[in-house]
Amino acid sequence: MEDSGINHENSAMIINRKFRTYLIPTVFTYVAIITATVSSSIVVGNLISETALSAVGLSLPILYTSEALFMLFAVGGAICVSIVKGQHKTETANRIFTMTFVSGIAITLLFTTMLLLFMRPITGALAQGNIELAELVRAYLRPLSFLCPVLMLVLGMSYFVRADGKPRIAALIIITSNIFVLVFTYLFIKILGWGMTGAGLAFVLGYSTGILMLLPYFFSKKRTLRFVMPRRDDFVHIPRIISVGTPKSLMYVLLFLRTITLNALIVRELGTHGMAAMTVCASALMIAFIFINGTNDSLMPIVGTLYGEKDSRGIRCTMRSGFYFMIVSCLAVSALFIIAPSTIGHLFGIYSTQGIAIERVALRMFALSLPLYGINTLLQIFYQTTGRIKLASVTVFLNGFGFLALFALLISRVNANFIWLAFVLSEAAALLVIIVTGVLIRKKENARGILLLQHDTE
């Protein structure tokens, strides 16, 4: 028994060390992504106008759609590869890897084509009939139409590089890309004066540079994932890839729906000042993403491999480490937004008295939702990785759109100035659903704890 305890302790140390190996470069990756994205909004707000900042917020539904499509294939494929690698099925891993990009690139190119064809009616609807806003949104989205296939190739590949046991290379690819996004944003707007078109173009060209960073990986003899010639029976992997990637992708689909709903309510009740405040809240969420998505993306390949090996002790150890890091980080970010909302509003170019008054209330209320959002997202990604796809998908829907839309509509009828409370109320309701559903599952299955694990092998 004593030896078993020592072995378990050593195993926990090894797993925690592996988690840190993935976590550090992944967090730096998200620091680069979020810095570039948030800095772009700051540059737009300060160098163009507060109205232009509102246009960035109105464009978010299209960006979320791009994220949803590439996540559907990249995350689904990477998790499937991690699981079969844990089962030591190298050939199957290569075929899943290949089919992910065959199908993913085809779908993202189709999305780009459709967006360009229907650009004018789409931007008109996003701007709620406001001609000035519609022109700004259109200028921003024309170059951004090409972002989706670029994300699939560059960010999608980074997921597989990480799953191949090379998290530092994956981080380097994305960090380099986002450094170029930041440089191009300043160059195109400040120096060349290309306005909103320059802001959109900076993202596409910046991420395109990541393709160059992939070349060393493709020529590396140590990589285990390789493209193979597709066979007819390889297409059977696509439904599995899509099924596993659906919960993560669904998060962005629901971000699209909730943003459309909230934008309509906010523009109608609070005008462009309210929309500028919503853009700041979206940026606040992106800053929390550094720690939330950094934790989740670090856990995915480890948990996927441990799940393939049926090592539930290792899974619990890994999840415990991830939870502590994520929750402490979210609490710190929330405290910052609650303490200094006006300073953050000025940083984004909001200086009008009415604009700051709305932004101050919005950011403080929104900040309360971030720790709960982190917990819900962590559990959703875990259930997705361990095969509880239905539970993950249902909680993502309730959390990402269902509860938020309901609370937002109810609060807007009473007092639109407090519509931001809908975020924290929806997260609390979603967590309650997860807890209650977990109790019901444990009664029916031989499952333990909130993670609902069934195996207790070493």
Write the layout of secondary structure elements.
Layout (H helix, E strand, L loop, with lengths): L1 H46 L2 H37 L3 H28 L1 H8 L4 H14 L2 H17 L3 H25 L3 H14 L1 H9 L18 H72 L3 H28 L1 H7 L5 H15 L2 H16 L3 H26 L6 H24 L14
Helix pairs in contact: 1-2, 1-7, 1-10, 1-11, 2-3, 2-5, 2-6, 2-10, 3-6, 4-5, 5-8, 6-7, 6-8, 6-9, 7-8, 7-9, 10-11, 10-13, 10-14, 10-15, 11-13, 11-14, 12-13, 13-16, 14-15, 14-16, 15-16
Keywords:
458 residues, mainly alpha, 16 helices, 84% helix, globular
Can you describe what's shown?
The chain is mainly alpha-helical. The protein has one domain. The protein is 84% helix and 0% strand. Helix 10 packs across helix 13. The longest helix has 72 residues. The two termini are 13 Å apart.
- The poorly predicted ranges are 1-6
Number of helical stretches of at least 4 residues: 16
Gap between N and C termini = 13 Å
Secondary structure class reads: mainly alpha
Instruction: Provide mean pLDDT, rounded.
Output: 83
In percent terms, what proportion of residues is strand?
under 5%
User: How large is the radius of gyration?
Assistant: 22 Å
